[in-house]
Amino acid sequence: MLAPGTRLGPYQITGPLGAGGMGEVYRAHDSRLGRDVAVKVLPEHLAATAELRQRFEREARAVSALNHPNICTLHDVGREGDTDYLVMELVDGETLAARLEKGPLPTDALLKTAIEVAGALDRAHRSGITHRDLKPGNIMLTKSGAKLMDFGLARAAGPASGPAGAALSQTPTMTHPLTAQGTIVGTFQYMAPEQLEGKEADARSDLWALGTVLYEAATGRKAFEGQSQASLIGAILHTEPSPIATVAPMSPPALDRVVRRCLAKDPDDRWQSARDVVHELEWIRDAGSQAGMPAPVAARRKSRERLGWITALAAVVLAASGLVLAPRLMTHARAAKQVRFTIPPPAGYDLTNGGSGSPAGSVISPDGRTLAFVVNDTTGTGHLWLRPLASLEAHELPGTEAASYPFWSPDNRSIGFFAGGKLKRIGADGGRPQVLCDASDGRGGAWSRDGTILFAPFAQGALFRVPASGGDLTQVTHLDSTHQEIGHRWPRFLPDGRHFTYLSLPAREGQFDNFIGSLAGEKPRLVARSDKAAIYAPPGYLFLVRNETLLAQRFDARSGATQGDPVSFGELPDAGGNLGEPSASVSDDGTLVYQTIVPVNVRLVWLDRAGKTVATVPMPPGPYFGVTLSPDHRRAILTRSDPQTAQDLWLVELDRGTTTRFTFEPGNEFFCAWSPDGSQLIFSSNRSGPYDLYRRPVTGSGQEELLYHSDQLKKWPTTWSPDGQAVVFMGSNTKTGDDLWILPLSGDRKPRVYLQTPFNENDPAISPDGRWLAYTSNESGRNEVYVQPFPEPGAKFQVSTGGGDLAAWGPLGRELAFATSDNRAMISEITTSPRFQATTPHELFRYPRGVAGTAFTGDRVLCLVPVGDQPPATHTVVLNWAAGLEGK
Fold first, then answer.
1. Residue 285 · residue 355 · CB < 8 Å
2. PANTHER family per the record (predicted)?
3. Please, what is the Cα angle at 443 between 442 and 444, to 5 degrees?
């Protein structure tokens, strides 16, 4: 026991609150913030090894990120000497266990508490966290509602020890942190059958525990009882509790249905999400007499018919519990019915690009056993990870930093991917990646059975082939100038290994053409139009996306013809990504995987130089990105992404928050530059094929003008010279990547190169006096901010020192602000006389996670920030996806 006055870091112990197998709990005072907290001192076995401590701290941080009114907040985790401790919200009230000693809850109180606890579980499950020790003792009843305690900590606990005669209801959860098969996890009285069998718990195990808690709260009796651990385990595995209505006749009979489905022996027969339970409980609460029919009627209801899909159930349960499935069992199970489950990203990583909401690349192996996917760490750097479907653990493939768009070899042994301007391959069992060839801006690849890799090395241009062992590139497809093609990407081989599908740029009337090509150079054949690249799926389908709906279209791979009408496979919200990026991946054995990403709505806020929100623009939130501020700081141009209208520019009056659509043409419009007087905009649009430059008055009343057209360049303007005589734009081509160009706005208006290197130069910004140009280049191996004289290049000065993007000048040209990949806002003081000098950059603040655009004014920053809590992106896995489509 800790004596009052003992200090653990900034926390001073004031007295004990309780004790249990998971540790001792004390009331303490936080001297930094002047508040009382609860401090739990953890058993010594948690600190046994550095690995245990590190994993525990990672999981504690994940739990601390849960923000829900019915989850007890975890404030801190620390170590003082040899003592590890947790700091939690101090909750006043009584546990549900203490309350049930007085008898069952009244129906109204029961439903209120049940809805709150199920809602808390739903929030945690959507974040990839499982409680694994839900019981009445971990539910605190307070004046403001129920609070779920000790969330997720069972996952970090160590081996159990203690006398066998300890009361079962007080047996603490003691779990090996690496979750070995055969380890029993949870408090016996509330444990699901799969936990008793030593299998891994998942969200459905929590729903079993919720059912036992609801049964006990409604009846005052435990759902399962026994005279010993063995008899208790036998009761849980083989018996059913008495119907609630026979014990509590005045309870709503519909509640018995909810609880019985929670207590299904097979996880696949239970509710599949806590959100489903919330909806059912809310219906019971709101339905009144419809849900509360007389008990004699309820007693005559037949028992719920148990599902007969045992083999399919075995597939998903065993996959979720980390057991390896025999091939015949997996095949037989998938033949039975369609099964869906989700896989969250690893803790501390994001499935989207730097939190932007865009997908980062996922693909299932041909045999359907392993998922390869790209996640981003807090710095925005991509890493390639593998997750066997028959395991709960994913692991990183070392040496794959900055990876994108992975694809599998046909034998499931290797993975191709793009990183650092190269096409690489790596063994699925690890090892050192092998560089195959250059690929400055890869857009997808495919690997044939004869060892040919077909890929798009550039954002624009044709498809090329290279041997899987590396070597010289051979061009395979050719752009059709008569159709104004600018690029081919996202190839996928068809079963014969000679023909393949690919997507053509640009989009036409909002959709992309998908063609069938061949390694032999046959004339391409148009096969389908879709919002995304078409994906071939055995035994003869194409997956297409139209109007945010995933469609399965029958397809004859030999003739290249589609058949019948497409069948809807459900909504698939467009979450951005590169043009035409595939939304799904399909294995040969019928496993479908796609990322579930909720598009992010954002709003405009003003931040001061400390990162504090000082004002919010009163505009409706929406799917915007990119901020270009007018010279007088009273208006801004945003890009709005809409699957029905592609990408358009919108004008925002910052004082009033009014938004006006500025472009209406088909295709995408984005990247723009304001004229110095704020009367005109130059922007980029691909309405006619390549991205060209257009000029239009801001009022919209004047004539629009095409400034520059070229089939060889994609063009994106970002900065207009202060004298109004020129605009600087990024020009992208297949040979030198992204370069900087100057377009004069008078005279012959012939564009000229400002800076062209083998590296990528982006985001130019002219200084207020027109004498200097800041830009980003990856010549050092990562993006850094540089400055050169303008309008002619000269001596080059590097401003950033640890990476940098999106440089912006202060209003007098005496400061240069930029952002880092880990969302830090940096600033450097600039002097230009007698020579150019920049101070070492220092941090102003960290941008909010998921920021979608910024504009620097000198004293403030205009930011697009996400609205509310954004649900994390997850993988949705569908086993035997084609079940039910036969005959359609």
1. no
2. MITOGEN-ACTIVATED PROTEIN KINASE KINASE KINASE 20-RELATED, SERINE_THREONINE-PROTEIN KINASE YBDM-RELATED
3. 105
Read off the tokens for 289. 């007499």
For residue 525, how far is the Cα from the chain centroid? 35
Pairing status of strand 613-616 against strand 602-608: antiparallel
Q: Give the model confidence (pLDDT) of 320-377 as tens digits.
A: 333 333 333 334 334 447 788 888 888 777 776 543 445 557 899 999 999 999 987 7
Span 145-166, average pLDDT: 51
- Assign 573 a pLDDT band (cuts: 50, 70, 90): low
Q: Pairing between strand 714-720 and 726-733?
A: antiparallel
Domain map of the chain by residue range?
Answer: 343-599, 602-866
Architecture of domain 602-866: 6 Propeller (2.120)
pLDDT in tens, 209-229: 999 999 999 999 999 988 777
Q: Which one-letter amino acid corresponds to residue 741?
A: W
DSSP calls for 337-381 = --EEEEEPPPTT-BSBGGGSS-B--EEE-TTSSEEEEEEE-TTS-
* Residue 40 counted as an annotated binding residue: yes
Beta strand 339-343 pairing with 145-148:
unpaired
* Burial class of residue 106 in the structure, from the number of CB atoms within 10 Å of its CB (0-12 exposed, 13-18 middle, 19+ buried): exposed
State the Cα angle at 887 between 881 and 888, rounded to 5°. Answer: 75
For the question of whether the overall pTM of this predicted structure is more than 0.85, the answer is: no
Q: Provide the β-strand partners of residue 805.
A: 819
pLDDT at residue 321 in the model: 37
Fold of 343-599: Neuraminidase (2.120.10)
d(CA 360, CA 352): 5
**133 noted as active-site residue:** yes
The structure tokens listed for 365 are: 């192996």
* Set 133, 206, 268, 692: catalytic member: 133
The predicted pLDDT at position 611 comes to 94
DSSP label of 162: S
Supply 79's token pair: 């170590």
The answer to whether domain 343-599 and domain 602-866 are alike in fold is yes
